[in-house]
Write a structure and sequence with these properties.
heterodimer; A: about 180 residues; alpha/beta; six-stranded parallel sheet; two-stranded antiparallel sheet; 8 strands; about 40% helix; B: six-stranded parallel sheet; about 45% helix
């Protein structure tokens, strides 16, 4: 399964559910943008690992909207302590989806230490997570504001194609996201 | 008239500033304030595991349209300069950032001194506007003014807590 395909699957479900989407710097942001731009997308461009934490802030600020964070396995490993904070707060409207290819995809595809992580056990160890699911292109995904804190794990291949360039600027992304929230 | 504690006055100012969301990492000077925020039913307080993620949570609050506060020790800010520059400054996220500026004359432990040694240089190098709590401690709308500064400048407004809050009370 290619990362771009499962990100497209997640994005389609997020749009159908009215979910806000926070994407990690690197291949997650670039592939998400390539599947179709939307003002509900909060594309991040640094530093690595902060998508779950930004998404926690968004989820707590907007408790009536589902929030999806699309994370890379390497980036999540850089901010694994965020899972403790997220588990403690346990917002019911937050879903983390980990794209796991065992490498830093945009950084020469060098190995990530995340290959030593068992995500099912990880979510079981953080008590605030109420749902864990291994997902693929056949998984029926519905996001809601009261799903319960969820960790999704997608085993993806190392990208064979180069992630497309990403033209949007951070201030524009921020302003557009806030405008979208004020109107929806 | 009974004197308000620092934390009572500070949280009253946080409310008056329209701040509804807060995040922080503990510090001894900030602990009474964190306890007060944690007990406030009308303020969501997130106890973050590390300062870098606290900056990200605060940025999430801000980008989702909420007025926010973050609390950290100065060494926590030093831990997080990459996040501050590439997220908070790059995305222009406005919130009030209260920093316990440890290592000054009120600290007697040798391990605190290195925390303040580089603060002035780092804050200057980052071209950050900062406000000293000591200078404005009698300003009744200090937090509101800081929030407005953050929103006008579109960046975190840094308030340096120069001495332990129990060193004084407010009328």
């Amino acid at each position: 399964m290619q990362q771009v395909d499962i990100i497209r699957h997640l994005a389609e479900a997020a749009h159908a559910s009215g979910a806000l989407v926070v994407s990690e710097i690197g291949s997650q942001t670039q592939w998400l943008y390539s599947t179709g731009d939307h003002p509900s997308h909060l594309y991040l461009s640094g530093p690595m690992g902060m998508a779950p934490s930004v998404a926690l802030g968004v989820a707590l600020a907007q408790p009536n909207k589902p929030v999806l964070a699309i994370c890379g396995d390497g980036a999540l490993a850089m901010n694994l302590n965020a899972l403790a904070t997220i588990s403690y707060m346990a917002p019911k409207n937050l879903t983390l989806a980990v794209m796991d290819n065992g490498v830093y995809d945009l950084t020469g595809k060098v190995p990530s230490p995340s290959s030593a992580i068992d995500y099912a056990q990880l979510s079981a160890g953080f008590k605030g997570f109420t749902h864990y699911q291994q997902i693929d292109l056949g998984t029926n995904l519905v996001f809601s504001a009261d799903n319960g804190l969820t960790l999704l794990h997608a085993q993806v291949e190392k990208s064979t194609a180069k992630a497309p360039s990403f033209p949007l600027q951070p201030l524009h992304i921020h302003a557009r996201f806030r405008d979208y929230l004020s109107q929806n | 008239m009974p004197r308000k504690s620092f934390q009572e006055e500070f949280v009253a100012q946080v409310r008056a500033a329209g701040i509804t969301h807060a995040v922080g990492v503990p510090d001894g000077w900030l602990a009474p304030l964190i306890e007060q925020l944690g007990n406030a039913a009308d303020i969501t307080y997130v106890p973050a595991a590390r300062e870098e993620e606290a900056l990200a949570v605060a940025s999430g609050f801000a980008m989702a349209g909420k007025r926010a506060l973050m609390l950290t020790q100065n060494v926590g800010l030093l831990n997080s300069l990459g996040c501050f520059s590439t997220l908070c400054q790059n995305y222009r996220t406005p919130f009030v950032l209260l920093v316990a500026n440890r290592g000054n004359l009120f600290d007697k432990n040798s391990y605190d001194i290195p925390k303040i040694r580089y603060m002035d240089g780092i804050l200057g190098a980052m071209n950050l506007l900062t406000t000293s709590y000591y200078t404005y401690k009698d300003e009744p709308d200090l937090i509101k003014r800081l929030m407005e500064r953050a929103e006008t400048a579109q960046e975190p407004a840094v308030l340096l807590l120069d001495y332990p809050p129990n060193a004084h009370t407010v009328q």
